[in-house]
């Protein structure tokens, strides 16, 4: 069922060449609000070595599908990705920050608590990029 299936319904049939209709009934479909949006990281805690792989996973404790996911870092408006997983195969100096996932069921939106991702072994920007 979807929320738009709410309404008045009746059934009918043909009895001895006459149409017979039931009394109408009202059906109300209630959505299950999104809740319990959380994210986890591999490696745990969101601490990853420079050049290694980081996988973030988003989970929803309750909610009614279909669900859509988007990934964000800091206050950026453009999503980094969609789907319940975000994989950064070779993290770089600029990948540190607060990540969160946003989930929508078409009627409501919920976000996870941000996870602070720290890239270990970042190059010192003052060191320069000598050749």
UniProtKB/TrEMBL annotation:
Gene3D superfamilies: Immunoglobulins. Residues 24-118 form the Ig-like domain. It comes from the Eukaryota. This is FCRL1 protein. Pfam families: Ig_3 (PF13927). It comes from Sylvietta virens (Green crombec). The lineage of its organism: Eukaryota, Metazoa, Chordata, Craniata, Vertebrata.
């Amino acid at each position: 069922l979807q929320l738009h299936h709410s309404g008045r319904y009746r059934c009918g049939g043909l009895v001895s060449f006459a149409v017979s209709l039931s009394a109408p009934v009202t059906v109300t479909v209630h959505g299950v609000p999104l809740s319990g949006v959380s994210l986890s990281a591999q490696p745990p805690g969101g601490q990853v070595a420079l050049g290694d792989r980081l996988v973030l996973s988003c989970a929803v404790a309750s909610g009614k599908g279909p669900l859509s996911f988007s990934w964000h870092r800091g206050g950026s408006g453009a999503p980094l990705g969609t789907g319940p997983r975000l994989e950064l195969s070779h993290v770089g100096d600029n990948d540190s920050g607060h990540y969160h996932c946003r989930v929508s069921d078409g009627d409501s939106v919920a976000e996870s608590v941000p996870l602070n991702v720290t890239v270990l072994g970042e190059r010192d920007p003052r060191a320069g990029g000598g050749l």
